[in-house]
Amino acid sequence: MNRVEGRVKVTGLATYAAEYPVEAVAYAYPVQSLVAKGRIVRVHDAEAREMPGVLAVLSCEDPPRLAEDADAELALFQSRDVAYRGQIVAAVVAGTYENARAAAAAVRVEYDPDDHDVALRSDHPGFYRPDVVNPDYPSDTVKGDVEAGLAGAAASVDVTYSTPVLHNNPMEPHAAVAVWDPEGRLLVYDSTQGASPDRDTIAQTFGLPREDVRVVSRHVGGGFGAKGSTRPHAVLAALAARAAGRPVKIALTRQQMFDVTGYRTPTIQRLRLGADAGGRLTAVEHVAYEQSSTLVEFAEQTATPARVMYATPALRTAHRLVRLDVATPSWMRAPGECPGMYALESAMDELACALGMDPVELRVVNDADAEPEGGLPFSSRNLVMCLREGARRFGWRHRDPEPGVRREGEWLVGTGVAASTYPARRRPARAFAFVRDGDYVVQVAAADIGTGARTALVRIAADALGVPPDQVHVELGDSDLPEAPVAGGSMGTASWGSAVVRACEELKRGDGKEGRADTTDEVGNDARLARHAFGAQFAEVRVSSVTGEVRVPRLLGVFAAGRIVDPQLARSQFIGGMTMGLGMALMEETLTDEEFGGFLRRDLAQYHVPACADVPHVEAVWLDEQDGELNPMGSKGIGEIGIVGTAAAIGNAVHHATGHRVRDLPLTPVKILSRF
Amino acid sequence: MDITLKVNGTPHAVDVDPRMSLLDLLRERLGLIGAKKGCDHGQCGACTVLIDGRRANACLALAVAVDGSEVTTVEGLAKGDDLHPLQAAFIEHDAFQCGYCTPGQLCSAVAMLGEPGPSAVTDDLALDPELTPEEIRERMSGNLCRCGAYVNIVKAIAEAAP
């Protein structure tokens, strides 16, 4: 079965947020702070107001009314304080995009700047322990005696890794069209991963009852977390429309996206591992150092995978956060697991080298019966089978473990392995199924950001109803539909699908005409178990001894993620995540400008994402995993696990190829060459 | 400024702001939303259209500069209800996820298949190269896909190639 919206996407008819035809729409263009910290003395906008077509200028000089409890990143123009370079400090509304942009360039903001502090460094005096890390995990955990475990180990590693600021960069820039009706109700066409929560946040920001706000997002051009929470552009569109008395459209530029739509925090991670002569872990310690803004505490759960992955008698995990004069970090594909598993799985490879043990076998002997922190049993865990199946398919048993010895001309060749994991959660949702013109319609305020949610839900509903998929129509992407959680945390299909199945069952049980479901009670009664998907990734790399360039001719991922709802969609999700992981390994990096604050490389010519020629062969397969403790579909989320472990597998392969360990992502030619 | 151009065979006479790009003309004035704005700087390829038969980034062309041209967008690829073979192959091979880069990928591929001559990965520069997967990847690398559908895009193009 192909994607149900395939035809509108290949013919250019699918409407993304900025593309809804709205009469008399005007355009807003933001003005961004040029200082990283300070106070706005005066916004000089007289010249801009005189320019052609200008309808309104917004700034803190005449603060538009917003609720007092608005999120600090969304409370536009409410304060004269600047928290980071690139923050939106003013905006111009005009009848055309060209006029709005030109007038925005004419707005001059006068600052009283303060000294700023934007650099994450391991000796920063401002580090503190957050109360919890996202979404609600304890910041620190301790089990057993790590120091004793390390002291008694036959082999140990004590290594520090760093990962840079990363930007989600969905292809569709964040955009919104806001329309107020005469009764004061607000309609926002928004690029969002969740119409219901976006509606709630916008309503809260404007102090409106949520019945008075509607968010529509039928097609979303990727998100990867960047559209998982309401971003300032949506608030700005609504403010601008209120000021101009007309519908207003805003589409952020690619450069503006780098500043105001979130990013993955940079991390510094120290790993200490010890093992006995047989490879069994005697101690694991994972400490992550990260940043947030002065506005909002965002504490990424980077060290949490160590609480899940390997059996050990001694385990300590900790997170330390520092508040800098930077934009607030946010969610990016597999927040926590992705950077955390890069470090843990790289350290496991180093430990295997120290032990003289095969890295697949090291992971196998340390497989866990229950979560190493807390001891919860797993609903299912097939990491070992993923490793074994991957090793078989990849031809791992022919591997010579000696690093730096395979040379083909200028190219050094190596292979590497790493494990993947991601939690399998679900949240309450509602759905409504009914008969229309002899077909079945299923409504749920889900979001299809490219995951194939529409298609997956059609299959799920068709299965539940016992009818062919072409008799089922799924309606999503609208907050007026039954309430649903965000497309994030790899729990969309599990959450929405549970509600869809229950609504379809209700329809069949009742009059056959309609059925409604609310899974709040069902989800609340889920047994306490450790639910996680697992996987194993294998990479082959070729490293040029002349230029330091790393090529990845082969990537293989083997996953155990419950029942796969749709093989074609699942494969695309897995290989898509792995492709993004390749970018993280080799090229993706936003620089922080220590002199002026803010970010450098704010476009796609400087922030490199993988292009077609970078990705010759990515293969993803999965095990047939049965797990009755998940949801009616038996599925685990698959949107994020693909990116977890890829960078470690590639980094480990680079070590195998060259004999050199680079512990600082991305693995750019200059870092590789400096080791030769 | 007054210009005339043909878009997907339909003539248009429009008065445009000299600062307006072809991409904004298509999207904001002519109601053709198929060409996407991903970066507005010629770095992502989402806005790729055909200008007089050649692939080009619509964000890098000023509207006034295409006065008198014939432009084809993704909306002009299908013949009525019959999809272009590349469009059908993209659906069949799941060569997209979010779909935002897809119109640019499709227009780029349509033009690419008609472009003769060697590329950076061609071994023998004297020959018209066979369209191997490596050649496709090289020739399609101006069109970014953040969802990571490249593997499927290459398969779709290889299948639809004449």
TrEMBL record, chain A:
Xref: InterPro entries: Ald_Oxase/Xan_DH_a/b, Ald_Oxase/Xan_DH_a/b_sf, Ald_Oxase/xanthine_DH-like, AldOxase/xan_DH_MoCoBD1, AldOxase/xan_DH_MoCoBD2, AldOxase/xan_DH_Mopterin-bd_sf
Record's keyword annotation contains Methyltransferase: no
Pfam families listed in its UniProt record: Ald_Xan_dh_C (PF01315), MoCoBD_1 (PF02738), MoCoBD_2 (PF20256)
Domain Aldehyde oxidase/xanthine dehydrogenase a/b hammerhead stretches: 11-115
Keyword Oxidoreductase: yes
Top-level division of the source organism's lineage: Bacteria
Keywords recorded for this protein, A-Z: Molybdenum, Oxidoreductase
GO molecular function, a single term: oxidoreductase activity
Stated name of the protein: Xanthine dehydrogenase family protein molybdopterin-binding subunit
Species for this entry: Nonomuraea deserti
Automatic annotation (TrEMBL), chain B:
Keyword field: 2Fe-2S, Iron, Iron-sulfur, Metal-binding, Oxidoreductase
One Pfam short name: Fer2_2
GO molecular function: 2 iron, 2 sulfur cluster binding; metal ion binding; oxidoreductase activity, acting on the aldehyde or oxo group of donors
CDD domains per record: fer2 (cd00207)
Domain of life: Bacteria
InterPro entries: 2Fe-2S-bd, 2Fe-2S-bd_dom_sf, 2Fe-2S_ferredoxin-like_sf, 2Fe-2S_ferredoxin-type, 2Fe2S_fd_BS, Aldehyde_Oxdr_Iron-Sulfur, Beta-grasp_dom_sf
Pathway as given in its UniProt record: Alkaloid degradation; nicotine degradation
Residue ranges occupied by any 2Fe-2S ferredoxin-type domain in the UniProt entry: 1-77
Protein name (database record): 2Fe-2S iron-sulfur cluster binding domain-containing protein
